[in-house]
Amino acid sequence: MNEEKRIRVVLIDDHKLFREGVKRILEFEPTFDVVAEGEDGTEASKLVKENNPDVVLMDINMPNMNGVQATADLVRYFPNTKVIILSIHDDESYVTHALKTGAQGYLLKEMDSDSLIEAIKVVSEGGSYLHPKVTHNLVQEYRRLAKESAMNNSVDHGIEYRKPLHLLTKRECQVLQLLADGKSNRAVAETLYISEKTVKNHVSNILQKMNVNDRTQAVVSAIKKGWVEVI
């Protein structure tokens, strides 16, 4: 029986107490190896070169070199290592800047341990992961821009809403709508009275049918097509 591949992680955060808390969470999971820690963005390249991690968890606000600058260096010199930004900021401008620099994920430090673990696994496999609140803010910003465009180019100022029942099942449409509302897998499960495992299966089916890589792409694509309502 083949053992599950272990995910090598480097932690970069200038707050030692927070770093130790994350380390304990990850070391409790058999899937992860925390191979190195650093407290400044200037250490990132050196630690990645020495330890060849799969994923770097990077604080965004640090002295000397912030997480976005450090991410730019890692993306340039170590393209096989994925970077997830950790932040207290859910502002759209922070998120956009980090993603444009090359980060594969953007997590808020308020997130629960299960979501952190899920995010690292998704990113290590080549996907992207955004905190649900961050996704919601990006969606709201996109809707604002779309509404402005509609007002400038059409008499109909709203976005036509039509469920993609030609492509998705009724339940998958419900899940997609809740993703657009910024809900996590757990929140979707509680709303629909189903298990988180079932939610994950629905999300996987949605991504496959819509031919996208992650939930953020699915939500943005659904908004463009008018498949979801964004209030």
From TrEMBL:
It comes from the Bacteria. GO terms for biological process: phosphorelay signal transduction system; regulation of DNA-templated transcription. It is found in: Cytoplasm. Residues 161-226 form the HTH luxR-type domain. Coiled coil: none annotated. Gene3D superfamilies: 3.40.50.2300. One of its GO terms (cellular component) is cytoplasm. The modification 4-aspartylphosphate is found at D59. Keywords: DNA-binding, Phosphoprotein, Transcription, Transcription regulation. InterPro entries: CheY-like_superfamily (IPR011006), NreC/VraR/RcsB-like_REC (IPR058245), Sig_transdc_resp-reg_C-effctor (IPR016032), Sig_transdc_resp-reg_receiver (IPR001789), Tscrpt_reg_LuxR_C (IPR000792), WalR-like (IPR039420). Residues 8-124 form the Response regulatory domain. One of its GO terms (molecular function) is DNA binding. PANTHER family: TRANSCRIPTIONAL REGULATORY PROTEIN DEGU, TWO-COMPONENT RESPONSE REGULATOR. This is DNA-binding response regulator.
